[in-house]
Amino acid sequence: MKPLRIALTKGRLEKDTIGLLEQAGYDCTAVREKGRRLILPIGGGEIEVVLAKAADVITYVENGVCDLGVVGKDTIMENGRSFYEILFALAGKKGCDFYAGYNEKTIATKYPNVTRGFFEGKGMDIRIIKIEGSVELAPLLGLSDAIVDIVETGSTLKENGLVIIEDNVAAISARLIVNTASLKLRKREIEALADKMEQERKKIQ
Ligand code: PRP
């Protein structure tokens, strides 16, 4: 399989992202010793890092020559066109006021660590129920008050009558963007990488 190609915004975002990837267990020696090289293998070569200017990261991802990109939210707002942003979001049933009442809330998720970190940051006690897939079922069936899950196109939420309550579960200005075709073809790999990076980021926050 071709390496998953991820474009990073040169500079601080590049350094932070490489730091996260290293913590997640990828060998990033090639990037650390890059000199003037712009395309570098990391891990066992299963990922290729491309170093570019912020707006160009979007161009490369949009055109599908890079599968993923890391850019600032500001760059997306200025240049955003057609790609998906990967968000970890808190979502619940349409019309339900998640924060109403004083009872302890129950959250269903595939990502308990990301979820724990988010609510700890808010100083809010919650109960987490680990669900293995199709997490959207949990609030629909009445098992949980909300979910924390990856949102890509947003269609799974919409088609199941759920809405985003907060999209800043990963409260950072940097965003992971993904090429629309890559998301279809390499969804599992991309989601696994997004999860690893988010878990490491929570640890250092
Ligand atoms: C992921 C995620 C959401 C959906 C989001 O699930 O957990 O359910 O994709 O994508 P969307 O915003 O484009 O609709 P996945 O398809 O990997 O299946 P799973 O829930 O069974 O793990």
Which short descriptors sum up this protein?
205 residues; D-Maltodextrin-Binding Protein, domain 2; 9 helices
- Which CATH architecture of the largest domain? 3-Layer(aba) Sandwich
Largest β-sheet summary: 10 strands, mixed
Please, how many domains? Answer: 2
Backbone CA Rg:
18 Å
CATH domain topology of the largest domain? D-Maltodextrin-Binding Protein, domain 2
Q: In terms of per-residue confidence, which ranges show pLDDT below 50 for 5 or more consecutive residues?
A: none
Straight-line distance between termini:
34 Å
Number of helices: 9
CATH class of the largest domain: Alpha Beta
Protein model, in words:
With 205 residues, the protein is an alpha/beta fold. The protein folds into two domains: 4-83 and 179-203, D-Maltodextrin-Binding Protein, domain 2 (3-Layer(aba) Sandwich); 87-166, Periplasmic binding protein-like II (D-Maltodextrin-Binding Protein, domain 2, 3-Layer(aba) Sandwich), CATH 3.40.190.10. It has nine helices and ten strands. Strands 1, 2, 3, 4, 5, 6, 7, 8, 9 and 10 form a ten-stranded mixed sheet that branches. Helix 1 packs across helix 9 (187-204) and helix 5 runs parallel beside helix 9. The longest helix has 18 residues, at 187-204. It is globular and about 55 Å long. Bound molecules: 1-O-pyrophosphono-5-O-phosphono-alpha-D-ribofuranose (PRP). The site of 1-O-pyrophosphono-5-O-phosphono-alpha-D-ribofuranose has 14 residues, from strand 8, helix 7 and helix 9.
